[in-house]
Amino acid sequence: KGSGTVVLKGPEPGGLAFPLVRTVADIEQYYEFRAALEAETAALAAERHTPATLAAIRAALAEAEEMGRLGVSELSGDINFRFHRAIARATGNAFHIAAIDALPNLIGLGPLEVRHAGHTDPEARNQVILDEHRAIFEAIRRREADLAGAEMRAHILAARRFVFQRHPAWPDAAPVAITGREQPGAIREDLP
Question: Which has the closest alpha carbon to 115: 60, 75, 57?
């Protein structure tokens, strides 16, 4: 009768673990998940930040700006994630913090080389990221939750576009021309 005593099962050993990123589809799902999660995280940070958590976000942004001035682009991946983690901490929501902390950092790892993705001017790419981070920070600082969420979503989707637009479908072969009888949705039997 009544609510009685409730016993909850504790967390599984090892905590939160995301699937391994192995395929192009995995990368697409990774960015899709991040866009949804981090847009909400930024919106909550805008609503809930304290002076201390806002200062931590500002410090992460300042660190990235300093690395840009020094031309140390190889550190951009870790510094980028510090900014995202500081935003998660500003939500005050342990689940958002745990999820962002556990996200795999794909920047500069593996054959995709996401950090610069073949870009000939990594400093220019880092400047784009810094500008996006500044826009997110300003929306959070002004407590504009909808704008903060929209800026973060745009930032994550821009990263996804950058990755997919910079990588050839067949890195060791010439591009395949699709000509002739193709219609949208048509199947080519002669494609590999």
Answer: 75
